[in-house]
Amino acid sequence: MNYAKKSLGQNFLTDKNIIRKIVNLTDIKNKNIIEIGPGKGALTKEILAKKPKSLILIEKDTKLAFNLRKKYLDNKLVKIYNEDILKFELEKKAKTINKIFGNLPYNISSQILVKILKFKKWPPNFDDLIFMFQKELAERIISRFPSKKYGRLSILSGFRLKIINKFFISPNCFSPKPKVNSMIIHFQSRKNSQYNIKNINSLEKITNILFSNKRKMINKNIKKILTQEKIKILNLKTNLRPTDLSPETYYKITEFFEKN
Ligand code: SAM
Hints:
Helicase, Ruva Protein, domain 3; two-stranded antiparallel sheet; Rossmann fold; 7-stranded mixed sheet; elongated; 260 residues; single chain; 33% helix; 10 helices
């Protein structure tokens, strides 16, 4: 079946070794699993072979969801939602989930990651998050300070997730072949933080304000966040650019901001 919708980022994994390598990143036996965008079920089949306790599939494409439903009609462990992951009550459904997998549709993969990063309750129940991204986005997520690709996404994801493993995947492993390279990132949720940030939305807000112009000094924008007095207490140099501040500085600014 050559069915593939570009608008839904449908590039299906066909390389058996890569499929096995992804699923073998973590222990699945007896665990509750979610898979986002199962498509034609390449990862699904391998996940089920590892005997999970349950498997929730969330697929927006009605035809693909219908086919999966037909395929797993007799399998009581599998529950299929024909829904848009961006509208899906993921935090609620993930309450008893141990692992989340997804070879994500590229056009919305950062939105999916941010949706998880913004879960209200943290640490969440899940330990492992195994996602495939377009290589360029993955590099922004994993970039460390200081580096060229360091930015909002690395600060936000670094606050809640740690990176356990990562590897590139060539376009040859898919059908149809994507024009770009991909990367798998295996994250684990951080259980505690030394920073007392009450609401992750505050950290998102601060990074949005300060990174609104990556090349400009922070002196104007920082005044929208902190009083002169707090800038002094934090010993912040306001002639720096947003990329010159470490993640820890962003966390501290957020703590101060929340105390306002
Ligand atoms: N997991 C399969 C694989 O590895 O072969 C398919 C991966 S494909 C890159 C992305 C999948 O996500 C497609 O099946 C697509 O229909 C589905 N998808 C796209 N947008 C979605 C959305 N908003 N919510 C849920 N699924 C979506």
